Automatic annotation (TrEMBL):
Entry keyword annotation includes Transmembrane helix: yes
Membrane-topology descriptor: Multi-pass membrane protein
Chief location bin: membrane
Protein name: Cation/H+ exchanger transmembrane domain-containing protein
Keyword check for Transferase: no
Residue ranges annotated for the Cation/H+ exchanger transmembrane domain, each copy included: 51-427
Transmembrane segments: 9-27, 39-60, 124-150, 162-184, 196-219, 231-255, 267-288, 332-349, 355-375, 387-407, 413-431
Keywords: Membrane, Transmembrane, Transmembrane helix
Length: 451
């Protein structure tokens, strides 16, 4: 270790210690007015950003991805450890978190270059098909085989266990474009393996909604509903998917128009887009629910991904958009993943960690088998298909969102499903980034983005 590097580490440790001391002092200060509440939230945001940045920098010296450092800082600051960020504050920060997610989704879409993916159409198709079959199959089998041996599931009826297994199997194919994009950005990775992994990640988050619509029709009768109710819910999900992708395409052409007429200063506009998509999606959902009694909400994640893909591949401003997003991405990623760390449900993990480990293991096995087979059949380099599964472990937003839909059918089963899903997500959010970064290093694509 060089003297300069040792000095940087010492400075980071001292700064982190001073920040932690400031956080501890701020928690002891009395709050007697509403403006002090606002000030407390501002201090929380600033401290979260600084602690996340410093923790990530320290962990990066031992090869751990910065995204993991952000998450670790959030977990330590969160309600399950130090309670610097309590449950109430986590709830208040959700809007900021959702805006950040929309921004990251736009970045993920803008990174998908059709020209780089076109030479891997066979590999993409095989991966999507095999992962859609093998991952759910292994996860379903694992839950059905393990359910009788755990108190967590032993008290459920046979129909509820079957419903839990079906829905968990479908949710297992959901991914986290935000985590994938954060690792790619940090590693400055570029190349066919990176593009293929990101393309599969984004496509799977769309496909999981399609598969979930069919699963709802099957599961509804098991949970006491009717087949008609199941197809009704599936139809609503289908409308949400089509509407989100359509709105995203329109937004993409709107961004093109802005870039065509405004030559510079795009950063504020992109942040406004992320905020507007998030708020308008929520407001539209509330209004439609009030008027039509339908729980219909457009998905900001899909809207922004579709918009990014359109700008990248159907306009001449794709490179400009990606560079603008890259330039302002650091504070967005730090804040998003630090708050995500504070939001991780460690109680859910402690409640069912043995079953969660089995489920995560079955999911990883399905990913390894499907990516290896797809790589061999499509003639990809051996260095790629042997490590391809490591790029797909992380899960997040869409998986959580799907569990909320079940609550309208059967709150009890939804509680079990949510607990188990959150436990698996917690495991994968720690393991996934480390694995993906290692895969990028092994394939030689780390540091290939010279922009």
């Amino acid at each position: 270790m060089t003297t300069r590097r040792r000095t940087e580490i010492v400075r980071s440790v001292i700064t982190l210690g001073m920040t932690v001391a400031l956080c501890a002092w701020s928690k002891q200060a009395p709050i007697n007015s509403t403006w002090q509440v606002g000030g407390g939230i501002n201090i929380t945001l600033a401290a979260t950003l600084l602690c996340g940045f410093l923790t990530a920098g320290l962990l990066s010296h031992i090869g751990i991805p910065k995204i993991t450092g952000y998450i670790v800082a959030g977990v330590v600051a969160g309600p399950h450890v130090t309670q610097f960020i309590d449950f109430n504050t986590v709830e208040k920060l959700q809007l900021i978190n959702e805006v950040a997610l929309s921004f990251i989704a736009l970045h993920a879409g803008a990174a998908l270059d059709r020209s780089l993916l076109s030479c891997r159409t066979r590999a993409l198709a095989l991966n999507l098909v095999l992962q859609s079959l093998l991952v759910p199959l292994l996860v379903f089998a694992a839950i059905m085989a393990a359910a009788p041996f755990f108190s967590f599931t032993a008290q459920m009826s046979q129909a509820q266990v079957l419903a839990l297994a079906i829905l968990s199997a479908i949710i297992a194919i959901a991914r986290s474009p935000s985590s994938a994009m954060a690792i790619i950005t940090e590693c400055r990775a570029r190349g066919p393996f990176t593009e293929t992994a990101l393309g599969i990640t984004v496509a799977m988050d769309v496909l999981v909604i399609i598969f979930f619509t069919g699963a709802m029709a099957v599961v509804s009768p098991l949970l006491g509903g009717t087949e008609t109710q199941g197809w009704h819910q599936a139809g609503i999900l289908g409308i949400e998917l089509a509407g989100s992708l359509g709105a995203g395409a329109l937004l993409g052409y709107g961004i093109r128009t802005f870039y065509k007429r405004v030559a510079k200063d795009h950063a504020l506009f992109l942040l406004f887009i992320a905020f507007a998509v998030t708020r308008l999606s929520q407001l539209t959902g509330h209004q439609l629910s009030a008027i039509t009694d339908l729980h219909l909400t457009l998905e900001p994640l899909l809207i922004c991904i579709a918009a990014g893909v359109v700008v990248r591949n159907a306009t001449p401003f794709g490179e400009d958009l990606e560079e603008d997003l890259m330039r302002i991405s650091l504070p967005i990623y730090v804040l998003f993943f630090s708050v995500a760390g504070a939001s991780l449900d460690l109680a859910a993990l402690s409640a069912c960690w043995p079953l969660a480990l089995i489920l995560a293991g079955a999911r990883a096995a399905g990913l390894a088998l499907s990516t290896w087979t797809a790589g061999r059949l499509s003639g990809l380099p051996e260095t790629e298909y042997k490590v391809a599964w490591m790029a797909h472990l992380t899960q997040a937003g869409v998986a959580i969102g799907l569990t909320q839909i079940i609550a309208r059918e059967d709150p009890k089963t939804a509680a079990y499903l949510t607990t188990l899903t959150l436990a698996v997500i917690t495991l994968n959010q720690f393991i996934g980034p480390v694995a993906f970064k290692r895969a990028l290093i092994l394939t030689g694509e780390e540091g290939q983005d010279r922009r």
